[in-house]
Amino acid sequence: MKGILSVMGRELRAFFFSPLAYIVAALLLVVNGLVFWLIVSYLNDPRAQFGAPLELFFGQTLYFWLVLLFVAPVLTMRLLSEERRSGTIEVLMTAPVTEGQVVTGKYLAALLFYCFLWLPTLAYPALLAYYSEVDWGPVLAGYLGVLGIGALFLSVGLLASSLTKSQLVAAILTFAMLIPLFTFGLLENLFSDAPIREALSYLNLWQHMAELGKGIVDTRHLVYYLSATVLFVFLSARALESRKWR
Amino acid sequence: MIDAQDLTRRYGEFTAVDGISFTVDEGEIVGMLGPNGAGKTTTLRMITGFLPPTDGHLTVGGRDLFSDPVAARREVGYLPENVALYPEMRVSEYLHYRAMLEGLGRGESKSRISEAVQSCFLEEVENQIIGTLSKGYRQRVGLAAAILHQPSVLVLDEPTVGLDPKQIIAIRELIRELGHKQTLLLSSHILPEVELLCDRVIIIDRGRIVAEGSPQDLQDSWVGNTILRVELKAGPEEALAILGRLPGVVDIEVLAGDASCYRLECTKGADPRQAVFEAAKERGWVLLELAREQASLEEIFVRLTTQEPVAGSVQVEVDDGARNQGQEEVPS
Question: Where do the domains of chain B lie, and which CATH numbers do they carry?
Fold first, then answer.
């Protein structure tokens, strides 16, 4: 536990000291702010369909996904590849900590920083609550989705980062893995076979977010995020260990 | 403290370390010497638990690196080659982080850190960001971090590489100081350094131990015949005849370029210096210089590690000789 905490602490500190993290934070805020503003002004139009602004905000715009697909590689690309490039991995792996502890610590740091990035968006429901009524259930479910899908994406990034010494390669690899992960489910409507549709729907992240935004929490989806995340974190630990038998 | 038996490490087809066996006793300072690519770093990485050996048996501080890796790692302090640090951290932050990684308690780590900072002379830079430090200071930060948990064995990989002469002296001073308290294994490709710092030297080349022993032992066993340099004012023929007949002298030649300089090759262990002096006194020669030349560790090193691929068969002989020699000298 102490091993995980010390690795996590150092990693969090590194996040807060790196300019890149602030660029990502700024970008996320600008895009989210813009989207929120667009949604609110659209819904203010009397001719618009009836809807809850935050239901649209969570995953029903392309911006949400674009930003997520960008944030995950940027946050995770440094995690293990930089340690390997600079050689600090040698110090880390000769300390009395295991590969699993190192990987877990780093992953948790990325996840915490990701949560920190979303923290300011709490201002949107607060604003809405000030001017009208907010149904908090769906808002909470929406944030649960943001957390779950973020956790999944970050674990993919962690794995990519464990495979290479280059941050750039890690980021590109993450992106390359996230694209199919995100788009496969969207192909759902192209198929008419029930089993295939069912399977793709299980992977359809957009659909998941739509449901969560409405306040429908389907535990199957949460199980999907969690199990995939655990798998990727586990694979990262194995990749880190692979130096031993190469 | 360190007991390595038949350590072997292969990277795919390439064998980096090929069946190395050696021991390091408590309180010893042992230097591992070899040209670049000889397998020094790989050997050290196995001892520190970073890489498992492909084959062989290894215990550190009595703990087996296979069955009890985390405990064995606790016994070792390690300064890797090209000391890798996190450039964005402050020195004190980094030391705290390392103390925590080693599992030291809060109070304990505080006192250990201040001890390490003191013994590595880091007081002035304690609050500086590591990225702004000079190479010499970084080396010291690495050392301080390696001794934080008071390991029973300290492993240093090329501790003086890339430093300027002044920094080298400072680091050597520090290493010698640490050597009083700890068992120390260091690698280097710089001979005088090893000669200066170490009680015992292990010379490795192409993944094998080619010689082992104290610097003095190595010199004695590898020097071969003693060489005397004599400069005197005398008739060249007379001098050649008389000196050549002295007991122990096998060969004599006039050194090129200077007719009054002679090079006497004597049998191993023989010391005809007194005889030379007495001969000169008897004949009234003026003796200008009388010196015994010793093969330096440098020559031995070059001789042991420079191998022409053609001289393969000869090499095997030398190799075996060295092995037997090495085994005799392993302290039990």
Answer: 2-75+151-220 (3.40.50.300), 225-293 (3.30.70.100)
